[in-house]
Amino acid sequence: MKAIRFSETGGPEVMKLADVDVERPGPGQVRVRQTAIGLNYIDTYHRSGLYPVPLPSGLGLEAAGVVEEVGEGVTSLKAGDRIAYGVGALGAYAEVRNLPANRITRLPAGISDETAAGMMLKGMTVRYLLRATYKVQPGETILLHAAAGGVGLILSQWAKALGVTVIGTVGSDAKVQIAREHGCDHVINSTTEDTVARVKEITGGKGVPVVYDGVGQSTFMTSLDCLKPRGLLVVFGNASGPVKAFDLGLLASRGSLYVTRPTLMTYTATDADLKETAEDLMAMVESGKVKIPVNQRYPLAEVVQAHLDLESRKTTGTTVLIP
Question: What is the pLDDT of residues 204-263, one digit of tens each?
Fold first, then answer.
């Protein structure tokens, strides 16, 4: 079968389409023929070396497909079951792979393969951000950076369904309407507007209790300045690069602020947490309150172009690779 592999870190060109043998599933595993694969910004961190991984390596963390064969001891799944996953070992950029049965989720009939492939990692990320890292409450106002991105479009819809007022930032005028259509009550073009001033204007000078920041270095100080005293900055991504060491006194001078750097892997470390998170996500999508916009599709063989487009901010919403 075909799979993407890379033996050195760097730009998108280090990814190569290779022929790979897949053994029969071992105890506790299932073999899955994948039908759609999710593209996520964390994939670029693994590829570039920002998040080091042993080389050579596969790439990708989420996909959907059909179980072809089950290994010894697997009773929760059977051949023919539709499944999806968003956490686990790298290697989702592939036609076929073996996976641990306890870390994947059976798909309901009402969710398509492409939707599932594009929602698991980003959707479960949104779930822990809104319901665990900071439990948003009806009537609160929050700030969300990159509101027209994959996580952003899901988070703004989910927050809106919970009765939250969402302020979103985007990087171009073209993305303003996209953010509005997916739950943002206020949209700030951060390239032409003063984000801090606009947030203070919208909140009557108070600031927000939480900022969800998947951009990182370039928005870090802006995020701190948008918080109310004792507010929480949730830095869950590094699209503009990682945040370097900073003076803790900045938190004191701005009102005893908090900063956290959470990961999906931590919040779904146990099978019980993963099950609860995945089922909550699927319920929200099936209810129609959260829609997953699959706006770009690339053949798996064109993954280099997909990464180039993602990193140059040409994409919106969810992107999937088709094996």
Answer: 999 999 999 999 888 999 999 999 999 999 999 877 777 888 899 999 999 999 999 999
pTM across the whole model: 0.90
Give the CB-side neighbour count of residue 287, counting CA atoms within 13 A.
Answer: 11
Q: Phi and psi at residue 168, in whole multiples of 5°?
A: -115, 145
> What pLDDT score does 217 carry?
84
Spatial contact of 25 and 70, defined as CB atoms under 8 Å apart: yes
CA distance 210 to 142: 6
**φ, ψ of residue 292 in degrees (nearest 5):** -105, 105
Contact by Cβ (8 Å): 282, 257: no
Structural Rg of the chain based on CA atoms = 20
DSSP string, 228-265: EEEEEEEE---TT-------THHHHHTTS-EEE---HH
Kind of pairing, strands 16-19 and 2-5? Answer: antiparallel
CB atoms within 10 A of CB 177: 13
Q: Environment class of residue 136 by beta-carbon count within 10 Å: exposed (0-12), middle (13-18) or buried (19+)?
A: buried
Under the phi-then-psi rule, with left for phi > 0, alpha for psi from -120 to 50, and beta for the rest, what region is 110?
alpha
User: Across the strands, what pairs with 297?
Assistant: 320
Q: How is residue 250 written in tokens?
A: 């900045």
Asked if 209 and 199 touch (Cβ cutoff 8 Å), the reply is no
Tell me the C-alpha distance between 65 and 34, whole Å: 4
Distance CA 285, CA 279 (A): 10
Find out whether the peptide bond into 56 is cis, omega within 30 degrees of 0. Answer: yes
- Interhelix angle for 271-287 vs 113-128, to 10°? 120
- Tokens coding 161: 């369904």
